Amino acid sequence: MSELLSQIPDAATSVDARGSACPGPLLEAKKAIGSVMVGEVLEVLSNDPGTKDDIPIWAKKVGHEYLGHAEADGYERIFVRRQK
Q: What is the CATH number of the domain that holds 19?
C-alpha cells in the first residue's frame, strides 16, 4: 500500500516518532496534522515497520492525501498532505 517516493516533498512540519512503537507514530501524526495548514505536508519519521502501512490507511480514512514514503538511514520518512 505504501509508495516509495523518488522525489521528497517539502514538509511544513516534521514529527520525529523514531523509537516509538505502534501505535505511537500514528498518534503523533494525528496530533501533528492540525499544526499544518490545508494543502501543506506533514512528515513523520518512524522506525516502526508498521507505520508506513498504518499512516496511508489513516490518511484515506480521514480524508488526507498520503504522498508516500522515503527510506532513510534506519527509519522511514512518511509524507501526508492535509486536505481539510
A: 3.30.110.40
32-75 residue pLDDT tens: 999 999 999 999 999 999 998 999 999 999 999 999 999 999 99
Domain assignment of residue 23, yes or no:
yes
Catalytic residue among 12, 13, 22, 58: 22
* 22 among known catalytic residues: yes
pLDDT score at 55: 95
Q: How many domains does the chain have?
A: 1
What is the DSSP secondary-structure string of 25-75? Answer: HHHHHHHHGGGS-TT-EEEEEE--TTHHHHHHHHHHHHT-EEEEEEE-SSS
